[in-house]
Amino acid sequence: MGSIVTKSMEQSFRKNQELMIEMNKIAVERQIQMQNQMRERATAVQIARARDLVNWIGSFYALAALGMIVGFRRTRKPSVLVPLLPLTFVTAYHIDMAYGNKLHRLRVEAENIMQSESDLLALPCGLPTISSIDQARLKTHE
């Protein structure tokens, strides 16, 4: 009689353990999906911000270029056009970030760093441990 109850309890324990493993797996998959969706949303906001900034910088660039060209026509001094060069680079950089493939190039470079220069990614003092987190938590309570 005792062995029947023991076998039944062991089977129930195994089923429960398998169920818990499956539930943990689903929870981890959901967490990964949630973090990925949050990352995608944050990236979309960054791109939108860059595109909005391009509108402002482009407007400033157009007005400044127009002013410099008018100033050059009146004074015939080429030094009036000098600020146009750095402004062109700044505007081109922001346009590339907002509408070009700069994000793709950044991602490729980040992957290269992760593969060939992973020592640069190490955290100071290594990864936090449960004991270091608990110690810091207890210090804040004192």
Automatic annotation (TrEMBL):
The chain crosses the membrane at residues 53-72. This is Plasminogen receptor (KT). Keywords: Membrane, Transmembrane, Transmembrane helix. Signal peptide: none annotated. GO terms for cellular component: plasma membrane. It comes from Gryllus longicercus. InterPro entries: Plg-R(KT). It holds the Pfam family DUF2368. The keyword Transmembrane helix applies. The keyword Membrane applies.
